[in-house]
Design brief:
Elements lengths: L18 E5 L8 E4 L2 E10 L9 E8 L5 E7 L3 E5 L1 E11 L4 E5 L5 E6 L4 H12 L2 E10 L2 E12 L1
Length: 159
């Protein structure tokens, strides 16, 4: 054989897949779907009858769960669509830094410092005002396809 060394660099991550396949005809309103490589929540589904070429088609109207943009897609109902793995996790808010990052307390007692404040103005003011008043705040973080964003806030009382 050869006596030279080979090194391979893997570009793939070892974790679970970011999406899973699901038949288009089984995806319902309030479910999730990937449209244009973005994780979305389905707000409307309509199915057309089988046409001349034999496939019923599903028309999806969905909202991007991170940007709030409306996206649409039409897929034959017998085909598979990508569905994102969407997780919601609650963390206690410890601190808000000057540059807009938040420090969150995880369940195992360590801190998570890689999240920015949300872009939604209403939620942003609720978090800042509640933190300024010294309240104990718990934020819900939604994660899908390698992205994370604060999506909700709970007030668990004063410190």
């Amino acid at each position: 054989m050869s006596d030279e060394e080979h090194q391979f660099e893997s570009k793939a991550d070892a974790g679970a897949s970011k999406t899973y396949p699901q038949q288009a005809g089984t995806i319902r309103k309030n479910g999730y779907i990937v449209i244009k490589a973005r994780p979305c929540k389905v707000v409307e589904v309509s199915t057309s009858k089988t046409g001349k070429h034999g496939h019923a088609k599903c028309h999806f109207v969905a909202i991007d769960i991170f940007t709030g943009k409306k996206l649409e897609d039409i897929v034959p109902s017998s085909h598979n669509c990508d569905v994102p793995h969407v997780n919601r996790t609650d963390y206690q808010l410890i601190d808000i830094s000057e540059d807009g990052f938040v420090s969150l307390l995880t369940e195992n007692g360590s801190t998570k410092d890689d999240l920015r404040l949300p872009t939604d103005e209403n939620l942003l003011t609720q978090i800042k005002d509640g933190f300024a008043e010294g309240k104990d705040l718990v934020v819900s973080v939604m994660s899908a396809m390698g992205e994370e964003q604060i999506c909700a806030l709970k007030d668990i009382g004063p410190k």
